[in-house]
Amino acid sequence: MSSGSSAAAATESFLAAYDEVLAVKWPAGTTHCEASTPYGTTHVNSFGPEDAPPLILLAGGGSTSTVWYAQAAHLGRSHRVHAVDLMGDPGRSVVGERPIRTVPDLTAWLDAVLDVLNIASPALCGHSYGAWIALHHALHAPDRVSKLILVDPTGCFTGYRPGYLLHALPMLLRPNARRTRTFLNWETSDAPLDPVWLHLRDTAASFPSARPVTGPRPAPGLLAALDVPTLILLAENSRAHNSATVAAAAARLLPRARTATIPGATHHTLPLHAPDAAELNRRMEEFLSAGC
Predict the structure, then answer these.
(1) Which of 133, 146, 159, 180 gives a 20 to 30 Å CA spacing to 167?
(2) Residues 269, 237: contact at Cβ < 8 Å?
(3) What is the pLDDT along the chain (292 residues), one digit of tens a residue?
(4) What are the φ and ψ backbone dihedral angles of 274, each rounded to 5 degrees?
């Protein structure tokens, strides 16, 4: 098989697995749209009453927006949930001629997505790398974020554990399904993650993706000035970082932040693994329904 045919087959396999997660795991009534932005076409999976308060969900790298199915089903009862495929990451978003190369590009892209969705000031939630994007967007446009939820955020308040990076390195250098599974099994201590989503994660290893935009942690002065109610939900057994250190740093740096820990959770059991997802949903729902 030629390299072109092999790539086409890998893409077809990935998209079929993506659609299977939507069909099997997402609630009936889920809708989909393509938001045209200067950086390409962004795919959004949505659920919940159209007149309900909007909630934007940004997944961690490689997880796709489909990983939020438990939150869509639960929080979609009170909110209009929009799960967004990141540009350049595995998913149904299609990169345009203008690449996303900087943090200002990322925030401009998300601004454009919100404009297409006709959303002025949603609650914004991200996990892992998605949390890093969400925090930067709140710093960029605090008036466009009513509430901020960061789920086991990476690169926001502290660095990674060296052991996490060491275990992730083989998967990052030469991604394939076996290396992805090995890494996830290590980080989650062999937690039984959903097999339908795991199959998608396997196929994502062969899906072409762009190098993600990264950078230093936000400056303390910027964080201190952020006047947005923020909830930071940490995985008790995260191997990505020390959760207690993250909680202490966030409490010190963010004036309107509260933190909570999901017992027994690891960085990659969130946001989909039961019972971690149920506790995550409960914490998110309480925060979203409370007054500022």
Answers:
(1) 133
(2) no
(3) 455 667 788 889 999 999 999 999 999 999 999 999 999 999 999 999 999 999 999 999 999 999 999 999 999 999 999 999 999 999 999 999 899 999 999 999 999 999 999 999 999 999 999 999 999 999 999 999 999 999 999 999 999 999 999 999 998 888 899 999 999 999 999 999 999 999 999 999 888 777 789 888 999 999 999 999 999 999 999 999 999 999 999 999 999 999 999 999 999 999 999 999 999 999 999 999 987 6
(4) -80, 140
Question: Helices 195-204 and 177-188, interaxial angle, to 10°?
Answer: 130
A 10 A CB-CB count for 62 gives 23
Q: With beta carbons less than 8 A apart as the criterion, state whether 250 and 257 touch.
A: yes
